[in-house]
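note to self — DONT lose this again. spent like an hour looking for the file last time. sequence + predicted structure for the chain T wanted, 294 res
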Amino acid sequence: MPTTLIADRALVSVSGPEAEHFLQNILTVDLDPLGQGEAKPGALLAPQGKILFDFLVSRTGENAFRLECRSDIADDFIKRLMFYRLRAKVDISKQEQDVVAVWWQADSNASQNDSATSTSESNAGVRDSRFSSPVLRFYQAPLPATNATQAEWDAFRFSQGVAESGPDYGLNDAFPHDVLLDQLDGVGFKKGCFIGQEVVSRMQHRGTARRRVLLVEAASTLPASGTELTVNGRPVGTLGSVSGTHGLAIARIDRVKAAMDAGQDISAEGISVSLTIPGWARFTFPETASAEDA
């Protein structure tokens, strides 16, 4: 099975008698059902509901958590956590590690024995819950031997419709629904208040989410990440990660549906593209255009 090292990652440790209570009150993700050996996606939001920091969180012990994030945002992430800590009995620190190993099952026909064999190579294997097929992340030395490139991992990640800040969207520019955190169990709608909760819950209950991550496919090589997707010159979305003829985009699903219904071409710098919803996602294209586009 493919294994590679992901560079430019940072591990933030949050521990102490009140660590879980502290994180539960500020992060989107519900920590109550988070089991040992599992990493779940989450975010720390601005009060207005947009994502300031995204991460994967896993348990490292009783009232002890590991938050894996991009290394370039780690110091600011820690500062924001410290800002909210106040008098809580919590220790927050950055671990001296900037590489994470990841193993994935790219072949859907691979046996579960292959997965078990990979897991037994290290006690540090943590299941990445964003994926329906087995994906393990390794944090402790010695990291497993690698036989794939980070580009191969990135291609697998976005082929599964899993977006990350940086290559796919900018921080402070997206709501959790935009990047499918609501679909990936990265938002705890029943756990009570967290920062930005009012805005995000309103979007959930009113069903007003219109920007969504979609899979992109074209007959020729796609242009660079950040390229606008347009219909008759009107923007409908933006390309995220791309590799050859495949990629991710965050797009207005109401406008995409209207274009498909009308037989209009969706393009990126003149290259026609098709947009589809990831197979595991629970949302659908809207049946009618929004009032804004009517």
